[in-house]
Design a protein that fits this description.
Strand content: under 5%
Order of helices and strands: HHHHHHHHH
Number of helices: 9
Largest sheet: none
Structural class: mainly alpha
Distance between the termini: 47 Å
């Protein structure tokens, strides 16, 4: 059982990071600022996290786990080739409902390194499924999954930050077509099913 003080301190540090991240670039945030904002002492910070990077990574792990849960969620219509648009619909709903801070992490230029960590974690989590589902080698599964995750999250980033100037329906159609056609060509190249 987790001590309530540990939980409260963790929550306070995470809240402090969320607030400071939206005010400062990552390298500008100090442990002193975090502990002052969280109303804890410096030693307590280091009992919970090794570094500010470690604290930030707790968010990337959480976001990646949520995204993996969406993309692999049953029913079996999670297959983006048999059911084009299912990933778009699930991710669109995620971004509509996600905490503002998660969207900030996934779309901010200053925090793009955290977005890349999320992409890597999600891709790693999907690779084994792709390898099995499409009878791909480990290398080809990794290539295919990274293509899909990177392009999908990058396109969502462009849409959310209003860099595309198209409707949601147009965005969905274009993204689904790009991902589907790209992966169909790749799967044909690899000789998978």
């Amino acid at each position: 059982m987790t001590d309530r003080r540990v939980v409260r301190t963790n929550q306070a540090l995470r809240a402090a990071f969320r607030k400071l991240a939206q005010q400062y670039r990552f390298r500008e945030i100090t442990v002193q600022q975090l502990t002052a904002e969280a109303n804890i002492n410096r030693k307590t910070f280091y009992l919970h996290f090794d570094s500010i990077d470690d604290l930030a990574d707790s968010f990337t792990a959480e976001i990646a786990d949520q995204l993996l849960g969406l993309l692999l969620r049953e029913p079996a219509n999670h297959d983006p080739f048999q059911h084009p648009g299912v990933w778009f619909d699930r991710l669109s709903a995620y971004f509509d409902e996600a905490p503002t801070f998660y969207t900030f992490i996934l779309t901010s230029d200053d925090y793009s390194f955290l977005s890349r960590r999320v992409k890597h974690r999600v891709a790693a989590g999907l690779a084994a499924d792709f390898q099995q589902d499409y009878q791909l080698s480990a290398t080809d599964a990794k290539l295919g999954v990274n293509f899909l995750i990177d392009s999908t999250l990058t396109l969502f980033r462009l849409y959310i930050t209003k860099q595309l100037g198209i409707s949601k329906a147009e965005f969905r159609q274009r993204m689904v077509t790009l991902n589907l056609k790209g992966m169909q060509g790749f799967l044909a190249l690899t000789g998978s099913k």
